[in-house]
Amino acid sequence: MDVLRSYVIRLYRQELEEIAGMVESVETGETTPFRSSDELWSTLQRDASRRRASSTNPLEENGT
Q: Are 21 and 33 in contact (CB under 8 A)?
């Protein structure tokens, strides 16, 4: 099941072909800069897949 994630996206520059800013995870406060729409999308995808990989089944952690 997918979990809803919240981000603050700050745009510092947006021109015809340029975009730059920061992505901040509301949950962790971690910020990541980006300099293009491709980097923005990659940052959001990487964060989502990293969280999925780090989440574990609570039953496995207790050894039951």
A: yes
C-alpha 36/C-alpha 19 separation (Å) is 5
Any residues with CB less than 8 A from the CB of 54 and at least 6 apart, and which? none
pLDDT tens column, 44-57: 888 767 666 766 54
Token match 């510092």: residue?
12
Q: What is the per-residue burial (b if ≥16 Cβ within 10 Å, else e) of 20-48? A: bbbbbbeeeeeebebeeeebbeebbeebe
Helix (H/G/I), strand (E/B), else coil: 36: coil
CA 46 vs CA 14, 35, 49: distances in Å:
23, 16, 5
What tens digit of pLDDT does each residue of 7-25 get?
999 998 877 778 999 999 9
